[in-house]
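Entry 12.
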Amino acid sequence: MPSDTRPVRVLFIGDIIGRPGRNALKAWLPTWKSTHAIDFVVANGENAAGGMGLTTKVYHELLNTGIDIITSGNHIWSKKEIYPLLKSSDRLLRPANYPENVPGRGWTLHPIRGQKALIINLEGRVFMKSLECPFKTVDTILEGFDGKIVLVDFHAEATSEKIALGWYLDGRVTAVVGTHTHVQTSDEILLPQKTAYITDLGMTGPVNSVIGMKKDVVLRRFLTQIPTKFEVATGKTIISGAVVQVNPDTGRAISIERVQAQESRS
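Predicted 3D structure (tokens):
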């Protein structure tokens, strides 16, 4: 039979914040998968349980919405009950540039429409923890991969570090998408060597908030400088991400499109 030459369509979803983010997924993901003819979904779930961390129950809830791979970042360690699942699951990632003896894996192989794909999770170092170099870490991972499709979630604070990794990997991976800042950027681009790039996918969670958290709690912390426990905001929700079209023969990106949807209720 002839091979399927249709572009592979990958949906990346930005940081899922607590129950509001999970509800937004349930409301929008089935429609998006249908209207955008999505073959594969990667979502960052490090804040999906109570606004910080992930639990086993929420992990299964996310997969049941239609997500294929869950990536994470610095907050994945917030709930220790997830540690055994980090060790056993090949659908849940923590950043690859943590020390080797920490629970979990930083990359995984997963089939997308019959061909092997590599999904990598990395964490930045600028304004964050002193981890192993994400640039050298991704070099090591790529050395052993003989497939075509490579998807990278770079969970980082500094836009400069994210942009630098995008250029560093141009032509070597399919897509580099940024997470962590919860604000969707408008710089999606197809780099010269056909790597799709965006600095931040944005947030999936409550709209009337400070990056997902209750406004008054965050303002109190800024005004007093006293440590305060953040709480997930409520109200209408937003879902943010990007759709990347991929040439199945080369693994290079054809296009990248920002996507976002918001509830109409006040």
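Annotation: The chain has six helices and 13 strands. The chain has a mean pLDDT of 95.
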